[in-house]
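FAQ: What does the model actually see?

It sees only this:
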Amino acid sequence: MRFIVSILLSVSCLASCSKGGDGTSVAEAMPTDLTVTSTVATDNSGNVNFVATAKNATSYEFDFGNGQYQNSSTGTLTYKYTASGTYTVVIKAKNASGKFISNTSQVVVSVALSLLWSDEFNSPGAPDPAKWGYDLGAGGWGNNESQFYTNRTDNVLVSNGTLKIIAKKEAYSGSNYTSTRLLSKGKFSFKYGKVEVSAKLPGGVGTWPAIWMLGDNIATVGWPACGEIDIMEQKGSDMNRIFNTVHYTGFSGGGAVGTSFLVNNVTTQFHKYGIIWSSSSVQFLVDDVVTYTFSNAANLPFNQNFFLLLNMAMGGTFGGSIDPNFNNAVMEVDYVRVYQ
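And it is asked to produce this:
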């Protein structure tokens, strides 16, 4: 009887611990022969169909090249990209113990964008109150600025198809200058997409116009934890230099991340300033040319709703000294458009 039991145990062991041809257990066999095909939809929807196959694979992991990942037990899935671009997709074929081989597939995706929100500034008078509110007051706004922000038509109005933000030298409520800061907070915000603003910038040493965005959660987490995207900043002392910048915790103020470059005729001609924003990057553009790309990531604040701001400050830590002969200057905006 002991002899029979011993034989049965040995057979059981052989059955459960069978080896592959290289001596590796079947469950531990390395995946091999990974092939990947990718088919991009022709309707500009952003959909890409992936089919991955490999011997000895029990699951597949897809890194879509934009900071997003997805697992599949079959190797077949469809992923929808939200922004046009060229993406390098990394696919891993895994066995039951997690050992894997990988391959890559490059896809070129075209995504048709639809207009989500805009202001064409075609109605004369005050800016549309359904789209814009105001920051009012003085106090430097954290940058030692010299203006008092108002909502008066002296400082902001729509006429002849454009928005005018007007900075003036005048004594007003204890300040020596006035201007306007418009914002869409509480009226419109969005997550990811394309922003395009056509603007003609002011001249005058000491002016500091900006087209920018802040995270919706600024009231709860404060700045810079909310994140800030400066689509365009300029200062009158270096009037043809445009700044693209992002601010967030650890990288704010003078330590923010970005670039600057020269653009001709910014005070005499309208130029298009914009961004293409996704979970993987913030691309800055001037006249449809990419000028700077910031790599976004899941741990950064640039993955939530942001609202828009348009303003012209005077002086401050960025605007610098104000020309004593300055009287007034105008930032003119033809339109603001947001696409998704």
